[in-house]
């Protein structure tokens, strides 16, 4: 078995915990070791196969060659059918206060307990090698290694879902995946099959608004909210249950990139989110989220305009506030992508005593799917023995054998009840921590049907749209115009316009204009084409009530945290002759505020400052791109300014940063570089601070003022107002 090496390199910032200690016995480190076969025989030569003579044929006898090639031939396993592309990190979770009034889950009742976690973020539709910046939902799956076994909160970065019943999931995924005849397009919903399906499935209207919003283009996994989506149950020690919705609230705020930027990033750095997460953790800038819960007492189940069991609905925070009950910190990158990130197996059915399910039909179907998929993906029923999946507490039961069994179970019995082994392992009493399912009363007929309380498909879609800021609304309109513009079949576009008109006529009108179409008048009962063969269309007709809430602030990203610039990436453009004071004053201020600053020069190697100091740039214009940065600064220094002004890449860098609404700062001496950009003429003649903050551009000779205002500007994230008029040549 693998061994512990005293020389194992652990970055100083990385934190250890109980799960990390348990994983340690599986870690292999070859530093200073001799090469062996898988059976421990030392290898003398693994670069030349065994041949009959120097120029002769390779001999079948060569067990070293055969083992090496055979293992290689089997290195790949099936990728996840959805959420194939992901990145993960280790961390810890701590609850703030004892939650035992609501739940008996021990890890939520002891503020002193630190629970190890492993979190995997993912896109949904793309395959393993696809880009991070696809317009898509993001998976947000958390495995808590609690003292009562594993609890998996397998959520997304959007609080609702496309469909109301798990039986439709294969249809949804077949529709969004690349089309089956030509396997195109990869990691994109902008194609006929997806919108063909969606336009006949009005229950997806709410989720479509989320998926077409900026939420689908996160700036970073570290800047996304997470949601458990379904309504779950908390159950306390007395057996009293309440409904609960889970939330993750990122302490860095919720931020997005622009669609044009996302498309560019996909080319310049398809690993953008993966790298961002990895780099932040390596640098010790540990991402943090607060765990939030919305609690609904059992007796209030029917108090809402929507059904708590309907996964296309959220509970507006105005109706039930989110209580923040604990904090999660990700503080260690995995040692091995395959062994950990790829082999981790989440399951929405992994719950601990005190957390239970509701009858949400989407949740119920998921309970079946996750084990089923792991059986083939991870090769058999023993995937729970893979180190990353093992709980930190012991496992004892009568399950035995199967492919790749690791545990060597002692004794004669593998059944219960047994007399031979005194009936061990014994079932656990509830008082000893045994899981007891919530005693919900069910008295019903078997029926394939949906409750009418699920049929309002539009009021929350409208609530979401109405809650967005103007730039966010524009982005939704642009996104839908883009996606439907990529759809070839006119009847699909038209059907979709009819659906959108149910949400908001203005929204549908703008998209119809972009598509050069009219909105067809399709009555509500005609919109839903997902009805059973013997179903009556009228029985399945959507309803479209007004909804009593006009707006919900929490649904917009506009009011998110904007008070710091921690981990934001800032570019400083420089060339030979740069004024080193101008460069370092701004750089030092940004670094002191926690930003990551890169100097970008016409070439790599060294540049020489005005004062003859050697400066080593981090990137050249060839290796860097403005889309990989949040803001840009141009320091002074006559020669540097003259070089940058004449350098098309530098001017393009600034133009693009402007187009993507980013903060731009320049030393007064570098004004010529700005003058070479197309946007300069838009600047007001006097750079008063208020104007500067609105426009996100500052030019000043006072480095102190410049640096501190630049920090404020970067914290605001983006200046979306600049998109009007939205015709920008970059
Ligand atoms: Fe999943 N989902 N899902 N899902 N899901 C999978 O399990 C499934 C749904 C989510 O990082 C699969 O191990 C069905 C909602 C995440 O490893 C599979 C339905 C939500 C991940 C599966 C849903 C999710 C998955 C594929 C409809 C948000 C990635 C590989 C009822 C609450 C976990 C795997 C990771 C993965 C089935 C809907 C979240 C096939 C049948 C809703 C974050 O089992």
Describe the structure.
This protein is α/β, with parallel strands linked by helices. The protein has 3 domains: 86-166 and 201-389, Catalase core domain (Catalase HpII,  Chain A, domain 1); 464-555, Catalase, four-helical domain (Hemocyanin, N-terminal domain, Up-down Bundle); 569-722, 3-Layer(aba) Sandwich (Rossmann fold), CATH 3.40.50. The protein is 27% helix and 14% strand. Strands 1, 2, 3, 4, 5, 6, 7, 8, 9 and 10 form a 10-stranded antiparallel beta sheet that branches. A 6-stranded parallel beta sheet has the order 15-12-11-16-17-18, with helices on both faces. α11 (470-486) packs across α13 (505-515). The protein is globular. The model is unreliable at 1-13 (pLDDT under 50). CIS-heme D hydroxychlorin gamma-spirolactone 17R, 18S is lined by residues 80-83, 86, 120, 122, 139, 141, 154-156, 161, 166, 169, 229, 344-346, 362, 365-366, 369-370, 373-374. CIS-heme D hydroxychlorin gamma-spirolactone 17R, 18S binds at residues 80-83, 86, 120, 122, 139, 141, 154-156, 161, 166, 169, 229, 344-346, 362, 365-366, 369-370, 373-374.
Spatial gap, N to C terminus: 56 Å
Question: What shape does the CA trace take?
Answer: globular
What's the CATH class of the largest domain, please? Mainly Beta
**Helical residue percent band:** 25-40%
CATH topology title of the largest domain: Catalase HpII,  Chain A, domain 1
Structural class: alpha/beta
CATH superfamily of the largest domain: Catalase core domain
Tell me how many strands there are: 18
- What is the CATH architecture term of the largest domain? Beta Barrel
- Give the averaged pLDDT, no decimals: 95
Q: Give the number of helices.
A: 20
- Mind summarizing the main beta sheet? 10 strands, antiparallel
Oligomer: single chain
What binds here, in terms of ligands, is: CIS-heme D hydroxychlorin gamma-spirolactone 17R, 18S
Low-confidence stretches: 1-13
Number of domains: 3
As a whole number of angstroms, the C-alpha radius of gyration is 29 Å
């Amino acid at each position: 078995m693998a061994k512990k090496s005293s020389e194992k390199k652990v970055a100083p910032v990385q934190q250890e915990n109980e799960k990390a200690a348990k994983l340690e016995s599986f870690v292999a480190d070859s530093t200073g070791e001799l090469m062996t076969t898988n059976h421990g025989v030392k290898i003398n030569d693994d670069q030349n196969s065994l041949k009959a003579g120097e120029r002769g044929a390779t001999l079948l006898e060569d067990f070293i060659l055969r083992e090496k090639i055979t293992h290689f031939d089997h290195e790949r396993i099936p990728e996840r059918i959805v959420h194939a592309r992901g990145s993960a990190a280790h961390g810890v979770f701590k609850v703030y206060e004892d939650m035992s009034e609501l739940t008996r889950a021990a890890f939520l009742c002891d503020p002193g307990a630190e629970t190890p976690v492993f979190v995997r973020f993912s896109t949904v539709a793309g395959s393993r090698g696809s880009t991070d910046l696809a317009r898509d939902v993001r998976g947000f799956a958390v495995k808590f290694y609690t003292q009562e076994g594993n609890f998996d909160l397998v959520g997304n970065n959007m609080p609702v879902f496309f469909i109301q019943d798990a039986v439709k999931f294969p249809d949804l995924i077949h529709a969004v995946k690349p089309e089956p005849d030509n396997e195109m397009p990869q990691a994109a919903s902008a194609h006929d099959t997806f919108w063909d399906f969606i336009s006949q499935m009005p229950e997806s209207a709410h989720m479509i608004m989320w998926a077409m919003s900026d939420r689908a283009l996160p700036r970073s996994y570290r800047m996304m909210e997470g949601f458990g989506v379904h309504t779950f149950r908390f159950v306390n020690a007395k057996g009293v249950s309440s409904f609960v919705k889970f939330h993750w609230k990122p302490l860095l705020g919720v931020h997005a990139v622009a669609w044009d930027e996302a498309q560019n990033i996909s080319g310049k750095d398809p690993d953008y989110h993966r790298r961002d997460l990895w780099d932040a953790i390596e640098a010790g800038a540990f991402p943090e989220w607060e765990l939030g819960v919305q609690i609904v007492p059992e007796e209030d189940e029917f108090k809402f305009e929507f059904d708590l069991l309907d996964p296309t609905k959220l509970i507006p925070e105005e109706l039930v506030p989110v209580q923040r009950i604990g904090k999660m910190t990700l503080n260690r990158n995995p040692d091995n992508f395959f062994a950990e990130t790829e082999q981790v197996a989440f399951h929405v059915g992994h719950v601990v005593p005190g957390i239970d399910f509701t009858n949400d039909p989407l949740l119920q179907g998921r309970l079946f799917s996750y084990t089923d998929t792991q059986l083939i993906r991870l090769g058999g029923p023993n995937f729970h023995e893979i180190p990353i999946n093992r709980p930190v507490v012991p496992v004892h039961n009568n399950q035995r054998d199967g492919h790749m069994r690791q545990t060597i179970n002692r004794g004669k019995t593998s059944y219960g009840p047994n007399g031979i082994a005194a009936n061990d392992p014994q079932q656990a009493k509830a008082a000893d921590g045994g899981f007891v399912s919530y005693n919900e009363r069910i008295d019903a007929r078997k029926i394939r049907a949906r409750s009418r309380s699920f049929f309002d498909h539009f009021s929350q879609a409208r609530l979401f749209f109405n809650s967005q800021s103007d730039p966010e609304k524009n982005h939704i309109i642009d996104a839908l115009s883009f996606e439907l513009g990529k759809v070839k079949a006119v009847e699909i576009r038209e059907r979709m316009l009819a659906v959108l008109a149910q949400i908001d006529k203005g929204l549908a009108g703008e998209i119809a204009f972009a598509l050069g179409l009219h909105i067809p008048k399709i009555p509500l009962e005609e919109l839903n084409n997902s009805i059973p063969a013997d179903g009556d269309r009228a029985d399945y007709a959507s309803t479209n009530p007004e909804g009593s809430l006009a707006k919900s602030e929490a649904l917009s990203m506009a009011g998110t945290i904007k008070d710091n610039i921690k981990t934001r990436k800032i570019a400083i453009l420089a060339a030979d002759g740069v004024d080193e004071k101008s460069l370092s004053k701004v750089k030092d201020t940004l670094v002191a505020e926690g930003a990551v600053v890169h100097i970008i020069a016409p070439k790599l190697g060294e540049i020489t400052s005005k004062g003859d100091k050697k400066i080593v740039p981090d990137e050249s214009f060839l290796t860097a791109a403005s889309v990989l940065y949040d803001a840009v600064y141009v320091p002074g220094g006559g020669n540097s300014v003259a070089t940058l002004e004449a350098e098309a890449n530098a001017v393009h860098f600034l133009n693009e940063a402007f187009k993507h609404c980013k903060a731009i700062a320049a030393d007064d001496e570098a004004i010529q570089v700005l003058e070479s950009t197309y946007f300069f003429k838009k600047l007001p003649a006097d750079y008063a601070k208020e104007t500067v903050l609105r426009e996100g551009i500052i030019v000043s000779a006072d480095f102190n003022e410049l640096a501190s205002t630049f920090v404020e500007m970067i914290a605001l994230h983006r200046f979306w107002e600049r998109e009007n008029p939205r015709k920008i040549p970059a």
